[in-house]
Design brief:
Elements: H1 2-6, E1 11-15, E2 37-41, H2 48-58, E3 63-66, E4 72-75, E5 84-88, E6 91-93, H3 102-111, E7 116-119, E8 128-130, H4 131-144, E9 150-153, H5 161-171, H6 176-179, E10 180-183, H7 199-203, H8 212-225, H9 227-230
Parallel strand pairs: 1-2, 5-9, 6-8, 7-10
Antiparallel strand pairs: 3-4, 4-5
Length: about 240
């Protein structure tokens, strides 16, 4: 929503969760964004008729649905065509992300002087994409993608969790050995498989542009700005 609002679009947002507080709402950080935004708390699965009525009332040009499994479906309501699927084949991060997610969790752990546990198996190579790169990719697919096609998006750069923690420590001018504790392999640890071929790179001339260092700096700046509020949140995922 933040990206669409920044481009001047009018946005209707349907979310089954209650409204999040300001640290997690990028569209509240800019004056004027809220004038182009309508938010409704609604679970489309439980209330399909109401959802359809709202969509018919506002008649959006594109419907972008973020599924629980990470898939993003793009529907064109003006043309009865199959949806376009975007699959982020990577870890997505950025300012405003929930604090139990990896990069904000590491950043906040350092700011709050909490130890970061590292496991012996944390050397699997993974990739990380800034949310701004993902949203530009989604918009590119929405405007140029072929109906019924699947577009995996990722970055070419891969890094291990251990290397990621060391990189963040370096960006925050702290010593790695002062912030981490080492332990054995976590239960159920699996190694990521190979990355999917990035169709959007070739067909839509899309490329991620935000380097990992720049993206991490944006999370650090966000965490510092909102630290009085963020320190009240648990860094551990609660079921």
């Amino acid at each position: 929503m933040h990206h669409a609002l920044s481009k001047g679009f009018h946005v209707l947002g349907l979310n089954r969760s209650t409204k999040k507080s300001n640290p997690f709402n990028p569209y509240n950080w800019k004056i004027g964004y809220k004038h182009n935004l309508i938010l409704e708390q609604l679970d489309a699965n439980d209330h399909p008729t109401k959802t359809i009525n709202i969509i018919n009332e506002y008649q959006p040009h594109r419907i972008i649905h973020c599924a629980d499994d990470g898939r993003i479906e793009i529907h064109d309501e003006l043309e009865n065509q199959p949806s376009i699927i975007v699959t982020p084949a990577t870890h997505v991060y950025g300012p405003g992300q929930q604090v139990h997610k990896l990069i904000p969790k590491i950043v906040l752990s350092i700011l709050l002087e909490k130890k970061i546990p590292l496991h012996n198996g944390d050397d699997a190579m993974q990739s990380f994409m800034h949310i701004n790169d993902l949203t530009t990719g989604i918009f590119q697919v929405a405007s140029q993608g072929a109906p019924g096609k699947i577009y995996p998006l990722t970055t070419n750069r891969v890094i291990s969790i251990c290397e990621l923690v060391a990189l963040i420590c370096n960006r925050m001018n702290v010593r790695l050995e002062d912030i981490v504790t080492l332990s054995g392999n976590p239960p159920g640890k699996t190694v990521d498989g190979g990355l999917e071929k990035v169709t959007a790179h070739h067909e839509l001339d899309w490329q991620p542009t935000i380097e990992l260092e720049e993206g991490i700096d944006s999370v650090i700046a966000w965490a510092n700005e909102w630290l009085p509020a963020l320190k009240n949140y648990s860094l551990d995922l609660k079921n």
